[in-house]
Structures are given as C-alpha cells and as structure tokens.
Amino acid sequence: MRSGRWSLPEAARKAAAFGIKIAGYPAAFFNSLMLGNAFAEAPMGHPVPDEIGFQDAVTPIAEEIHHFHDWLVLPIIIGICIFVAVLLLICIFKFNEKANPTPSRTTHNSFLEVAWTILPVLILVVIAIPSFRLLTHQLVIPASDMTVKVTGKQWYWSYSYPPDQGGGFEFDSAIKADADLKPEEGDIRQLSVDNEAVVPVGKTIRVQVTADDVIHSFVIQAFGIRIDAVPGRLNETWFKAEREGMYYGQCSKLCGRDHAYMPIAFRVVSPEAYATWLADAKKKYASNSTEPLHLAGNETAESIRK
Fold it and tell me: CB of 191 within 8 A of CB of 248?
C-alpha cells in the first residue's frame, strides 16, 4: 500500500475527474479520505501548503505506520466520535424536560457498567497487538548495509561516515540563509541545508544518534523515523529508502533559541551515484577528522544565523 497526500484544491480537481460533484473543501476532504490512495502523487519529501494526510512513505516502516493509522486507529476514532455524537443527540432530544418531564430514578444498570468497562479494554487490545508489532519492527534493527552517525548540536547537525565503509570523514549540515537560497535548483526555505547527507537507495541504513549539548530529536517523516538525540547516549534507528529523492525533517525538541532552524536533509540516490558522491566527499571533507570539529561547526552555524 502506498499512502497518498493531497492539497484541498488538488483533491477537488482529481475527484471531479472521476465524476464526483464537490461543493467546497469539506466535501473535498471527505472524498480524499475515500479515494486518497488512488490519487497518490510522486513523493516530495517535504510538507506542502494545504496538504491532507502524511508525507509520502518511502520506507517499509513508514508504510506500516501509515497503514496502522489509516486502517486501524482512524476508523476506531471515527467510530467512537460517531457513537458519542449519537448518544449526545439522544440525550438532547429524548431526555430534555419537554420530552421527558418525569425523569427516571435509575441509579444502576449492571449491563451498561460491565459494557463500558469491557469494551474500552477490548478496543485497547485491538490497538495494542499491531502497535506492539510495529514497535518491534522499528526497534529491532536488521542487518545493515551501512551506518551513519548523526550528532545534534545547537543548532545544526553533524554527519559521520565510518572509515570501514569507505568514509572516514564527517561534516556539518546547517540551514541555508534566505539570501543563499536558489529556488530554481529546488531549495526550500527553512528546509534546505548547505551540506546534505547522502545514502544509496534500497540499502538498510543504521542511524546512530547522539547530541553534544542538549536533547534534540531526529525526525524524517517520509522515512518513518523519530528518535531523541541525547548527550552522552547513543541511540539507534534504521531506514531503508525505496525511492530516490530529497527528503527533509526537522528537530522536534524545543532545544533552544534556534530550534526552528535546524532542518534535516537526506538525498537518496542510486548506488552508482552514491559511490561517486562518496569519492568526492572524501576529498571535500578530507580535513575533517572523525572527531567533531566544534569550532568550525559553530562558526558555520553562527554565520548562517547572521
């Protein structure tokens, strides 16, 4: 299954192409829920204005997250909301003073008391079983093809490629200043960075995450990964991108003054393109040792903030 996402005008246009009459955006929203996957667009890897739903999933874990939400959690939420709304309407119209001038003196109903205790437990069990399976798939890291170490700093990221996998270098990745953006080349304000992390498509990537100063959170929605970067602790996650493209994320912890200005940018390329990039990166970052270069990194981030 592939999860789709749609802007409201786009949902209206595409639904109309199927002969569906839509009057306004609320109807477009309803039809997008019914027909969303049929209207899936090419992955964009970043949020767009007026979109509905998640970003396109490009990893098995992200697909599983979307399926869990779309086909289990969301129907349960909608069902509970409808059930409660019906109960409220019954109370409003059947038990108001005019319709029911003599109120019931009932104080106990054993069946109802058992039902509203057992039913929520059963609902939670139904949710728990697939959620535990999803958590297991997220936390149990399969045999990886390569490893990338990510270090969160105030307020940028550092990426380290290990020597035993053809790397032996690291680099800082900070947000591009507005003056340096080139929209014609695909730059996006508050998401594009000066140095992108690059990984090959179809490979299992182990991501080791830590921090130098305060707690950050490493999140890439299209990959379905979210993990805290904690000083003094090495956390791990993984992803396997199945489509090439540019994918963005952001720190989701309130990590200080420039929390909103430390985006994450991963470019997924073919194995051949990755080999070319790796050779070029080893030359470009040859002066960078495998130890963090705090001074150079702070100077880069500070210059961008100015």
Answer: yes
- Per DSSP bridges, beta strands 205-211 and 156-161 are unpaired
> Does the pTM of the predicted model rise above 0.85?
no
**% of residues, the chain, pLDDT over 70:** 80
DSSP H/E element including 303: helix 294-305
Longest dimension (CA), the chain: 87
Query: What sign for the dihedral angle of Cα 174, 177, 178, 184?
Result: negative
> Collapsing DSSP states into helix, strand and coil, what is residue 224?
coil
Q: Are strands 263-269 and 197-200 parallel, antiparallel or unpaired?
A: parallel
In angstroms, the CA 148 to CA 285 distance is 15
81: how many CB neighbours lie within 10 A of its CB?
10
Distance CA 147, CA 160 (A): 9
Per-position b or e across 177-215, b if 16+ CB within 10 A of its CB: eeeebeeeeeebeebbbbbbbbbbbeebbbbbbbbbebe
